[in-house]
Every structure is written in structure tokens, then in C-alpha cells.
Amino acid sequence: MTVYVLRRLTAGLVLAVLVTMITFLLLSTSFDDVASSVLGNGASPGQIAAQKAQMGLDRPLAVQYGDWLSHAIRGDLGASYFTSEPVRSAITARLGVTLSIVVVALLATSVISVALGVAAAARGGAVDRFAQGAAMTGYLVPSLLVAIALVYVFAVKLHVFPATGYTDFSESPARWASSIAIPVVALMMGGVASLTSQIRGAMIGELRKDYVRTLRTRGIPTRSIVLRHALRNAAGPALTVLSLEFIQMLGGALIIEQIFALPGFGQYAFNASLQGDVPIIMGISLFGVLLVVAVNLVVDLLNGWLNPKARIVS
Amino acid sequence: MTTPHADTRRRSTLRRLTADPQAVVSASLLAVIVLLGLLAPVLTSHGANEANLDAVNAGAGDHGYLLGGDKSGRDIFARLLFSINTSVVSALIGTSIALAIGITSGLVGGYFGRRVRGVAEWVFSLIMTFPGLLLLIVLMPVTKGDYKATMVVFGVLLSPGIYRLVRNLVLGVKNELYVDAARVSGLPDRRILRRHVLTVVRGPVIIATAFLAGSSIAVQSGLAFLGVGSNTVPSFGAMISDGFTNLYEEPLQFLWPSLALGIITASLVLLGNALRDALEGGRPKPARIVTATTYRAPATEGTVSGLLTVDDLAIAYPTPTGELKEVVSGVTLSVAAGETLGLVGESGSGKTQTAFAALGVLPAEAVVTRGSIRLDGRELLGLSERELRAVRGTSIAYVPQEPMSNLDPSCTVGAQLVEGVRAATPMSRGEARDRVLALLARVGIPEPERTFRSYPHQISGGMAQRVLIAGAVASRPLLLIADEPTTALDVTVQAEILDLLRDLRRELNMAVLLVTHNFGVVADICDRVAVMREGTVVETGTTEELFATPRHPYTRTLLDSILDETTLRTDPPATPAGALETEKR
Asked: Looking at this predicted complex, what is its ipTM?
């Protein structure tokens, strides 16, 4: 088990190195623009070259990346070209905001989708039509529009929630909750749609299986058959969908943060990219990959716990 | 491959699509929208970026602006039309890149060996790790925010989905006999891939394309909303963003682009779903696990007596046209206490349906149309699930045909049995555990402790069948219904399982209803036999009688077909059809 986790973590680190390396190589094609945007408009080619040399951007790419990596391993991600703010502390400060909405949205998505999908598969009829309708709406309406509609109704018309801004959890849990409520709902729509369909389909398949009939003949209550047996077997593929949904939400959070003016990771990334602030972009890619690796690891471990055949013999 | 058959199938798919209002409406909407985009230069005399300072926030129709002006004085109608083109180009770039990369590598990865697949797999899981939108934004310095370049990157990010889809389909079809045959006959790989494999992949890929186009458009709009890219490129996202800042004063400026974007993405999803229905058949519908039996048996005395009596039982299933088709039509049989009755007949004769009806576990679609099933004098038809549960746990038990699929794969053997024991008789977990271990030892499992902790995939088929028998007899039932209990097992194991059933029956003084098509098993273990054919019992008698003097021609046919294996057949087999015609006359 420990061996497995260690092996997966190593693989995750290799992945992080690869992703940051590819990002760096892609970014290297725009170093001239980066230098000129630091200098401001109207810089001469000579000035740009001098600026690049001063920033170390004229060195061989391998040397530059190695330099970044060796610092990154020691926890030093450099500082912004423009504000000189240290990248690591800037990202961790903003990560809390993004993770607040993504993690809450992910949890809420799982709960709602399991409830809807299981009820739809086990009861059929009106519940099923409702679940399918809800899933369809989630697919059909772009989440961008959902978010704006929610702001319009709940924040502007009804004044139930604040339209924009973020309150930290440590400051006031209640205000934190109301500041992320609409963003979370907007972020969830697509996830609920795909996860509900996934769970509904998998549960329909499981409930038709032979072992369900045999368990019934032993006098085992339907509730236990559905929740303890069928759901457990249906949960594996759903978990995979959930981990993909996490990646999706991490991306979706960018738009949501923009709409609701939340001071998150996404907004920071967006501004840095507009300016070509290489240290920040690199730091963000690194954190993004590490988050995905962590979530995938958790999902794989959960999957092993759910499904004995997927369990790893170490 | 253009065989006449494939041709008719393609045509009928097309016909199904044109008959589906969802497909027709969504496809026509999309066609109209694309056409509007193409005709934009004809339909409006204003450019997308042409600003008229007099027309700032102009109302509909002012200054020749059909839908009014936006906050920079540009024609909203013209911008909408030109935004369609941006969306269409985005969708084309995103989907074609994703399809080109995904299909090629899916075909290669699926068709060729493990090593090639390993590499492809690795590369695509790497791509899947990138949080899409984040990467698109991070790469802004590289793409310079140009929406076409961005869509190229997005296409790459979409490709893993297509790769996996195609790879799975190819892996599925690769070992089909006709592909083998093509390979053996010396067709080059390239031609096999094109002619045989691509035909299988086509349908699912067409469906996926609709969804890919939808997400390309949504992402392009999302990025434009954020302000990625040049503001001279007209886009729904940019229009929504402008409208958003102006939401309170001029809500219509927000409404139009949102409506257009919503209609386009929704039409693509609906079209995708309609394509899926047409190409892959309807999606599965949920079936209630618990059958709500509406039928109630008449309170009259039955014509047969015994522990289990089935009287004139009829079971029907709805056909696609909505009519009911009987699969069991008037079965009458009885099992006395302690007796073993063999229920024989070929597959499809309604044996298993009769057994399921007695257990109350018919599929939800099944309809009991008449008859009665009594256990120890108590009518079972029409009992609620709760009442049935009590009967099932204690009086009537079931041993299935296929041992492996009848165990929950993700639950230990012990946990499944303990749950059953405790459902039938309330007791503590520890007591139930001891009881299960004793039962496992009784049914001949060498290491009960180890099997108790094992998962179903860790034990053999014979062991699994013993486990299921243990689960069935755990509550000392009056009646055991065994549905072909040895058919799925090795010949050597079959005899052991039959011996075990015989011993348990004597020990527990159970009655057994043994569903089988095997007269060897019947001769071995049954006291009496009922022969079923096409949903009715055609003959009942003691085992000796039936073997010695079969009265019904169908019984004779069945008996003939199991003549001992040493006899070489010289004559043509007796025709059951002919025998039946004699019978009907």
C-alpha cells in the first residue's frame, strides 16, 4: 500500500516536471514579448535584448529550466516580474479561494448526483424523468449563462447573496458560505449533469445483474441491496468521472472567479498571462498539476477501497 | 464495406433520424444559424466593428440597427451574425484537431500491439492532466490570444476523449471473427483498419463530434468573455461580457448573445443525443427492482395439493408494440414436502420464469396474468415486498445457475452470507459469523475462514456454487429452488454439487424444485418430473415412469436426444415438429 502510494507520488512528480517543462518550452517562444512588456511600449530591439539578458532569458533553455526546477524543489518559485511579489506565497494565498469553491462544488456535486442518479435508477417513473430533465438542463445551458442568471436573480433582484467579493472562512463562516454560494452552484451545473447520467446508467446496469436477484431471495431489504451492494459496484466509474470533473471545475473556476470578482487562482493566472509574467505562469502550472495529481491519487485509493479487483497487491 | 445490408441499415438510420423531431428541429436550427452566419455580409450593411458614436445604446431599429447598438455604438444584429462565424470556425478547428489526433492514435493504439498502446496511453493521460481552460489561459503569451490558435490547443486537449472512445471500440472489434478472417486472408493492416474497423468507429465518433463542437464553442465564448484575444473578433462571449457590464441599464444587450449561444450549444447537445438514439438504439430505462404485483390470486381452493402448488400460472411480457406476449401459459405443478421435483424442458420453455415467479423475483416488466402460487397453503402472488421478504428469508430459498455473477463482486463472501443470515433471523454479527463459518464447512469448503474473507473473484466456480448453496440453506428453508445448479460447472464438480444437494435435502428435510434440461441430473436426484414446453407442463410423473413410459411425444424427443454417448447415431434425429403435429391432431 505505502509502496503503491509512493510509486504514484513519484509518477506524479515526474508528470509535474514534464508539464512544467512543456509549458516552459512553449512560453520560451514569447520571451521577446515578455521583455518588451516589462520595458513598456516603444522599446528598441537593443533594449529588449539587454532586458532579456538581465532577466536571464537569453541563456540556453535547458539551463533556464534547470535553474527554475532546482529552485522549485527548494520551494522557491521566484518572484513576479512586475510586482516582485514572491510567487509561492501569492499562489497559496489565492489557492484557498479557488479551492473553497471547487472543493465545495465537487462535494455538493457528488451528493446531489448520487442521490438523483440512484433514485432515478431504483425508482424510475417521475423521479427518473426529473433526474434526466435536470441532467439535460445542466448539459444544455452554458454555465457562463447560469452564473450570470443566478447573479441577476439572487444578488441583484432578491439581494439574498452578495453579487461579488469573497469573505474568508476564518473571518466569518456564514459570510464565507454566502459569498461562495452562487459561484458554487454555477460551477456545479455541468458536473451534476454528467455525474448524474453516469450514476443513473451504472446503477441501472447493476440493478439488472444476477447478484441483485440472489440477494433479494435471501430476504435482504431493498434499501441495502441498492445502497450497500449496487451503489458500491456502480461507484468506480463514477469516481473516474468525478476526477475529470475536478479538472473541469478547476478550469471553470477561472470564468466564475472573473464573473464574481473572487480573488482566486484563476484571476491571478489570467492577469499574469496577459502580462507574460513567466515565474507566475510556471508556478501556476506547477500547482495546477500537483492538484490534479493529488485528486487522481485520492480517487484511485477510493476506487481500490470500493473495488477489490482494482486493489493493488503490493 | 458496402454490402446491400450495410446500405439498408444506413438508410434506415437516416430514416429514423428524419422521423425524430428532436433531430430534425436541432439540425434545422443549426443549419439556419450557420446559413445566417454565411449570409452575414448580405444581411447587414454594417460591419461587426463599425462604431457609430450616435448609436451608443441605441434602441432597436434606430440608426438602421435592427436590434439596436451596444455601448460602443456597434450594430448588435451585425455582431451577432459575425459571431456565428467565429463560433463555427472555432467548432471546426477544435473538432477537426481532436478527431484527427484522437481517431488516428485510437486506431493505431487499439489495433497494434501493447507497446504502441502503452506509449499512446501515456501521452494521452499526460494531456488529460492539464486543466484545460487554465492551460489555454497560461498559454496566452504563446497563442497571443488568437482564437484560432487557441482552438488548435483546445483540440489537442479534447483528443484524449476521442482516443479512448476509438481505442475501446477497436479493441472490441479487433478480435471479432470477421476481422480475424480478413487478417488471415492476407489483407494489409491499413485496409482492414479502413474497411472493417472504421465502420464500427464511425457511429460513436459522429455522436462525439456534436458534443465536441458544443464544447469548442462554449470554451471559445468563455475565453472571449474573459477578454482573451483581440476585441476586434466578434464573439458571443465578448458580446455577453459587454452586455454583462451594461446589464442593469440595457438587459437586452446581454439577452441577445446569450440566447444565440444558448440555442447553438443546446441544439448541438440535442442533436448529439438524437444521433445517439438513432445510431446506438435507445438508452436503458430503469426497471424497478421490486415488482409491484397488481395481480391478486382468487381465493378459491386450488386443484392441486402439496408444499408448493402452482396452479394455472401465466406470465406475460409486453412486446415493443405494447401487447402482452405469454411466456408461461397455465403452468400447474406441485412439490410435496421433502420431495425433489425436476422441472425439465428446453431453454425458453418457461422453467426459469416459473421458478422466479415462485420466488417473487420476476423482472419488473413481467406481468402475472392469472393463476396462483401457494407455499404451505399461503398465497404468494400479490404479497407485498415486505411480506415476501419474510417468506424468502425463511421458507423458500434459491440456488442460481451461474455462480460467479450471483455473488456481489465487491463484497467479501462472508459479509454477503452474514447479511443474508441476519436478514432472515435477527442475531448478533458474531453469532451470524459463527453460523456462516459452520455452513461453509458443511458445504465442503476446505478452509472456511479463508473463503469467508475472500472476494468472489478469488474463489473457483465450484467453490462459489458451494457458497451460494450455503447462503440458500442458511435459514433451513422448507423449499429450495435450484435453477440449473450444475450447468455452469466443470463435469467433475457437477457430481459433487449434486451429492451435496442430495445430502442437504435429507439432512434438512427440504423439498427441492430443480430446474434443469439435463435428464442425467433428473435420473440422479429427482423423485418426480414435470416436463415443460412452450410455457405449459406437458407431462408429470415419477422419474421411473417417465423414463420407462414417456407418454408425451415431446418427452420422448427429449429423452431420445440424451441417448448414451456410446451409441453412434446413424438415423436422422426425430423431428420434434413432426411429433407435435401428430400431437395436435
From this structure: 0.80
